[in-house]
Amino acid sequence: MKNHNDTIRKLVSYLNDPEQQGGFWLPNIQRPFVWREEQIERLFDSLMRDYPISTMLVWRTPASIKCRKFIDHYHPGKPLSQYQVPENDKPKMLVLDGQQRLQSLYIGLSGSYDGKELFFNVGSGNPVSPDDIRYEFRFLKPGKAIFPWVRFKDIVFYKGMPNHLGTELAERSSTPLPAESFNRIVENVWRAHNVFCAQERIAYQLLDSVDNPQAYTENDVVEIFIRANSGGTQLSKSDLLFSLLTSAWDEADARMEGLLEDLNAGGYRFDRDLVLKACLVLLGKGANYDVAKFRDETTRARIIENWGKITAAVCDVRDFLRNHTFVRSHHALTSYNGLLPLIYFRYHYPEKWAGAKGLASFVLRVMVTQAFSGRPDNLINKLTRQIDTDEDFDVPRLFELIRQDGRSLDLTDDVLLGIQYGSRQIHLLFNLWYRQYDYEPAYAGNAPQVDHIFPQSALRQVKDYNPETGRHSLMRYPAAVRDQLSNCMLLTAAENGPGGKGDKLPAEWFADKSDAYLEMHLIPRQKELWALERFDDFLKARQKLLLQRLKPVLHELPASEETPDAPSEPHNDEQGRVQQSESNGAATSQRGEPEKSGAPGDGLRQAESAEEVMAAFLQRIAEPTKYIAGFRTHGGLELALERNRSGIALWTEVVPDVEESGFVMAMRYDATTPRNSNLNSKNCPRLKLGREVLTWKLRDTDELVDFINWYQNCRGVEVDRS
């Protein structure tokens, strides 16, 4: 292994250039680029401060290996397949460790980040604490940057003397600069020249399989890659496992992304971890997620050979959920691990799949009781062994194994009535209970919504006498009481939207409802119980109705809901997509390369972080609903965050100069065009139907802060509603 050093400018020029040592490229085992703008900006600040940069690892090889180029103009969400390069047997340099840093340098010095280029504040550099930014870098739209912000690549690739460039830059100032500021600019230009052009600051260790072909085999390199990355946080465990599979299977990326796209098309969130674990379980390797299992060439070969059967088993179980258990979305699926015994049975005993009994009862019982929570690997292994022993899916016998593992399956009254608002279990129960509702709406905001029968706002006002203060200040109904299943019902989006239920008490909301409506929602018929002062009595009466409805359904489902469809026969198209016959309702992808990446759930966590940021800078309009959090700027403008949407999706009023904001507007709605019905007169009165509104999609919380700063300084556009 040889150590090499180069200047940053020189090494960046080698990327994607086959004329320079064959060019530097990224092998397919590398995961996608994930750094945010702020991380790249901090990297450049660190370099300017002479902080060390870690050594990279590069493999020089003539092997015909699938790889991709470094991204010059980065756009989040763009599929990696668009950066693939043709395979060849010429010597080339493949980066095994250091992708994020090297890619960041390439974007900053030779490209852009989502249409913005890296600019440097040539007047920055005052001493600061170690954790603060000293040398200011920022990604900006080229046309919006003004002095002292200078495009950094113009400094690094300047051909003349640095002091001449410093003078040129100082002359861009609209006012004469004091000597101190002029000297700072010249000093910064010289520092950038030294760090990026003169000093050999970037180091890499070279694994050479060209001059020494026997030194490093492809398996050696994959093992080195895993060891180099597994010690830190660069790769998740699924990344490491998948890198092993990718090294042996060129089409692994396309096949996996295609499968996940099809599985999740209907609202689920299957992820790569679950699929990889399923591969191990189905091939008899046990449920324990161990890198060593994927190091075995035989295991990898069997996954590739049996991929069609594996995907058919997973897809058939997904279809069984949707068609026969009414667990039709991620919200109602409390454990994906709980599906592995069914996937195992479908994979090994397809001839018995369509005639199996009790599968839906199994799913519902383990999902409601959360029997697969915690660490279920040993339990999964026990269940699959029992399935092989019986050569069948014997539900009573499998339930007994679950109980022997110390996990409860009891559907007692306390268990059912203890399920709370906001839990995935409550969605599961409602999916069973409200089967006449449409769970596949045209758009996400139109989905049925869980709502409180007695509004939280009213229940919070009920206070008890506090002997310590001599006032009625003790809240009678804490959140656990307000949020219990007995105080929840399912409403359509229209019912919960503008002019709908809102904060209406039951006495008002149910006053004009039919007997059929009350029966569907299991509402006690005694109207005197609908009054706020009878809340406790209402709960007791409704608990009885709930248990009468739910317990029979959970213990014995109709035969039609217990029998799966016939197993499908999948085939793979030229792009590696899993396609299944339309006769059994399986999803078929007709789109191009998938654009989704990352573990499901990351987008929703980003939305949660966005709400925290907005709460810190803005005023809440009202208590957020499950779907909408409304805010108001200090100047009176309103904006709303969609809480259930992946990423950061905002609604705002129409403001001037939108095109010059630097942010990407998703859509403009006129005053009469229907929009998300969760926007109502309470949570966002100025965004409701009757006013023009805008929608925006932001990348991260850093961009959100910039957006808030811009929006705070806007003035609203009044709409003529005469």
Structural write-up:
A seven-stranded mixed β-sheet has the order 1-12-3-7-2-4-6. It is of the alpha+beta class. α5 (162-170) packs across α6, α13 packs across α14 and α26 packs parallel to α27. It folds into four domains: 2-203, no CATH class; 236-356 and 372-407 and 566-584, no CATH class; 436-540, no CATH class; 602-712, Yope Regulator, Chain: A, CATH 3.30.1460. Residues 231-235, 438-446 and 571-603 have low confidence and may be disordered. The longest helix is centred in the C-terminal third of the chain and has 21 residues, at 535-555. It contains 27 helices and 24 strands. Residues 15-245 form the GmrSD restriction endonucleases N-terminal domain. Residues 577-591 have a biased composition (Polar residues). Residues 427-548 form the GmrSD restriction endonucleases C-terminal domain.
Please outline what is shown here.
With 722 residues, the protein is of the alpha+beta class.
- Mean pLDDT, all residues: 81
How far apart lie the N and C ends?
78 Å
Sheet with most strands: 7 strands, mixed
Radius of gyration: 30 Å
Low-confidence stretches: 231-235, 438-446, 571-603
Question: Strand order across the biggest sheet?
Answer: 1-12-3-7-2-4-6
Shape: flat
Judged by helices, strands and strand pairing, the structural class is alpha+beta
Secondary structure: number of strands? 24
What is the number of helices? 27
| Tally of structural domains | 4
Helix content: 25-40%
Strand proportion: 5-15%
